[in-house]
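Give me the fold.
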Amino acid sequence: MTPDRKWQIAEPPPPGFRLDLGALGSGIRGPLAARLLWNRGIRTDSDVAGYFSSGLDDLLDPLGLPDMAAAVERISRAIKDGETVGVFGDFDVDGLTGTAIVFRIVRKLGGKAVPYIPNRETDGHGLSTGAVDSFHSAGVTLITTVDTGSTAVNEIAYA
């Protein structure tokens, strides 16, 4: 633990803020909901409406992520060349969901994909050499990681 770092607790919303939420008819009520929205910069009824009716246009451009264009090009080439893409994901909700999405997209684009979700009890957390071996046994020539893998330097070198 870093002793020079301190938790910063955001200020609660002003009294009555939660009452404004009830006027929306959204079913969102109570001081916890009000505080969460307040801490996200939601201040007015129109802010709340916009927050809960966000669309694809409200998402950030994924190509703004470092090396995303190179990753897209490599996955596209793998699909075009008939390679098998391994999709490694974590066993938590966002890892499972992300793995399913990437797996389905590769398949939808005409590619071959093999998903791999580690067993929490036997495989541990994160990309492992065992997972890499499993992918190689399945004919995988490109391994992608979803919601994990950013610190798996040794395992990536092994792959």
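The domain at 62-158 is CATH 3.90.1640.30 (inorganic pyrophosphatase (n-terminal core)).
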